[in-house]
Amino acid sequence: MFLYQLRDMQIAALTPLRFWAQVGLQTLENPLFCAVQNDFTRHVIKEMEILEKHGRIYEKPVFNFTQTKFRGTTINVEERHIKAHPFCNLVHFDRKTDNESTTEHIQGDPKLLIIPPLSGHFSSILRSTIESMLPTNDVFVMDWIDAKKVPLTEGTFDLEDQIVLLSNTIRRLGPDVHILAVTQASFAALAAIAHLAGENDPAQPRSMTLMGGPIDARRSFVPLREMIKTHSIAWVKENHIQLVPPYYAGAFRPVYPGFLQLQNRMALTLANQSTEIVKYFQHLVRGDEESEEEHKKLYNEFLATMDVPAELYLQFIEEAYAKCSLATKSMTCEGKKIDPANIKRTALLTIEAELDDLSPPEQTRAAHDLCTALPDSMKQAHLEIGVGHYGIFSGHKWRRNIQPTIHNFIRKHAQGLDETQ
């Protein structure tokens, strides 16, 4: 139960070495030295980069969106934070411009709620996703708060709480909203929309895009489900859950630490290949055709991890991987059965990646078989060939193929909007 403290002590011990690594990098990367670099110095630079990156704790990255463009016109972006819950802020990227025709376009844009996964990374891991959707959507983002910073007095936050929060946020934004949910959030988002549909709530969204999530984990092999088959939830709790150390605001809160979650996923996914974090990242982004510079930016986001409330993590793996409760229709929320077959008004788009071994193809597409009341005209599935898990929401193929597919789907199902815009 002291892995958290040991990790923090290790980071503290590495601080002097990290300082000298920074000095070494600044020296060797100086233009005066670049001309005389050889294989040895390049190897030294690589080792120094690894020490500098892995010898520190990464704080939450900022979104830092100040502008976007639409048809050549600059649009100013203001980031507004709305307190939604002790474990989540609702971020609105408010867009404004002095151009009258562009202002008219902005006012008619669809309202889009982006739901990042609550699974060890900050919401900023979807920075590329959000940036791509900003020019033509009124974007809101569920910005999850690091559990180690939430005081114990704020209570617990489990999967059912997440579903209720998503339902209430959809109600808050109104019935004309569209949902884009990524990986873990796909499961909770489908449950929330089915929950609203079961109550015939007028706030049911116009469309939902589910990306790489375990809607039915039985459909294809996934390491996490195999682990659950051989170990009990009690074993997972004993081996994965830690108490937040007393020097954080969330002191003594039981959490699944972000650093441990990253380490365990790496061990599950690359058990027979490598346990090096750089190679694991390369495994996740394979096939996305992105530049080395863009990979470096995403890698920094990847290294920034947050803690997940223990009760949410344990309930999620039990419902999504052990019971597959959405697919088996055994899930409940607020004492009521959740059944995706109740969804009649929300169009469905599923996005999967061919090389995704965290949520392999067919797991997300299973939502089409569950939403039996939706006609084929309100369903669409997209499989992106040749990319891994991160290629679903970032990289060249995201911008070239997936984002336009989502854009067109939202436009098609946004009432009163010109589909050619």
Please outline what is shown here.
By secondary structure, the chain is an alpha/beta fold.
Structural account:
With 421 residues, the chain is of the alpha/beta class. It has 2 domains: 3-54, no CATH class; 67-412, Alpha/Beta hydrolase fold, catalytic domain (Rossmann fold), CATH 3.40.50.1820. The protein has 16 helices and 14 strands. A 9-stranded mixed β-sheet has the order 1-2-3-5-4-6-7-13-14, with helices on both faces. The chain has a 3-stranded antiparallel β-sheet with strand order 8-9-10. α1 packs antiparallel against α3 and α6 packs across α13. The longest helix has 26 residues, at 3-28. It is globular. The termini are far apart. The model is unreliable at 416-421 (pLDDT under 50).
Radius of gyration in whole Å, from Cα?
Answer: 22 Å
Strands across the major sheet, in which order?
1-2-3-5-4-6-7-13-14
Give the full name of the CATH homologous superfamily of the largest domain: Alpha/Beta hydrolase fold, catalytic domain
Alpha-beta classification: alpha/beta
- Please tell me the overall pLDDT: 85
Poorly predicted parts: 416-421
Main sheet overview = 9 strands, mixed
N-to-C order of helices and strands: HHHEEEHEHEHEHEHHEEHHHEHHEEEHEH
Give a count of the beta strands, DSSP E runs of length 2 or more: 14
CATH architecture classification name of the largest domain: 3-Layer(aba) Sandwich
Broad shape: globular
Counting DSSP H or I runs of 4 or more residues, the number of helices is 16
Helix percent reads 40-55%
Distance between the termini: 55 Å
Q: Compute the number of structural domains.
A: 2
CATH class of the largest domain: Alpha Beta
Which fold name is given in CATH as the topology of the largest domain? Rossmann fold
